[in-house]
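Write out the 3D structure for:
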Amino acid sequence: MGSINYENLKDEYQRLFDTCSIRPEKEDALDQIIARMERDRARYQKLQDRLGIPWYFIAVIHERESSGSFAGHLHNGDPLNAPTVHRPAGRPPTGGPSFTWEESAEDALKLKDLDEWTDWRIPGFLFQLERYNGFGYRLYHQNVLSPYLWSFSTHYERGKYNHDGHFNPQLQDGQAGTATLLRRLVDLKKDYMSDLAGVPAPTAPAKPKPVAAKTYLVRPGDTLSKIARQFGLPSWRELWKANREAVPNPDLIKVDQKLVIPTTQPTAPSEPAVPSETSDYIIRKGDSLTQIAKFFGITMGALLQINPQLSKPGTVIKVPRCSDEDPSIHVSLVPGQKRLWMEIATREIGVVAYPDGENPRIIEYLNTTSYPDPEEDEIPWCAAFVNWCLLQAGLKPKGSARAVDWLDWGQELEAPRASRVVVFHTIGGDHAAFLEKEKGDYLRLLGGNQGQEVNSTNFPKSWVMGYRWPKEIPL
């Protein structure tokens, strides 16, 4: 399953927010919640001052997780007199046995790296709200927009995960959605929302005005965004404007419905920007020049200009130079394949264990190990994920689904550094994952079975049992 990519979702988030209508019968309930948020603003503001996260972002999450009660963890509403029991369990990992709300809240926000997020415009705000709760609705129930965001609005009718983790299509969410609360704040023109509401969503450079049109019949699975991309339109909005009378709601188009496709006047091509510094990249099976150009943020023309040779797997081509010390860039740079497994692991972000225990992707991870009977994903699968990623990178992994077995794999290293395999002991048992970077007393690890999904999560350095590195790759 592919990764959840913010850049690919920005337009969708802005469109959903722009077309969000609050159900009239819910306005009073929303206003009561907002009054409570404003009453407690000083407590949220302290976290904003420390972490740089808008106080109203913290407030809407607090409302959703524990109905605004300061007696529960911001992670999930569990009581503050002990670490969390439900997912994510064992938080905060240090301190206690009881915690102040501020201590717990800071841990919850840092756990999601929200202190490092800077795009607090509406699309970035909504992306982080959905990420905080998880992408289960988006990945596995695409006909239901997440009630965590859209409950109390016309974007949401029914369909919800039970407390036992099973999806019930008839169950209706009874809490206010976080995005719906945000919509109400903007509609009320609260002065503290001016920064958020006043900054427009990222827009593409000005496009030529549409001058001619053709038609298209909607097919099963089509959306306005998908059709717009198919015809090279700047965004779904251009398509919607051309069909607004026939499509009053951009989220509702019908199969066999005829749409007008606006076209744009051709413009003179500009010279592609050629990078001044380059690094070498080894083309892998399945790569395309289009994918490589997009990954490195340059045009196809620029990539071809610095690589006039035809390319096939194993060919070395030039790409824009990246900092090899930047752990956020996972590419295979010559010599060797230092970060190829990190790129592979990153593409898996968003894979989640199904409530019924049968996600075929996780079974695929387990099948690369010696685990005797990998029939369901409810067994620990963190080491299997590490094994699968290394195998996809063409390396020889341990072959074990037991995290502790990885302590004698490859080369032993003394200190943390990006891309290394980390083996450590948690409250729930042994764990293995890939190291992204250090964060003070914590390590940010990219791994599987972290809260039942593939993600990046912070863990204390004090839990580490060992760092390992592939023998095939020189340090």
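Residues 65 and 76 are 5 Å apart (CA to CA).
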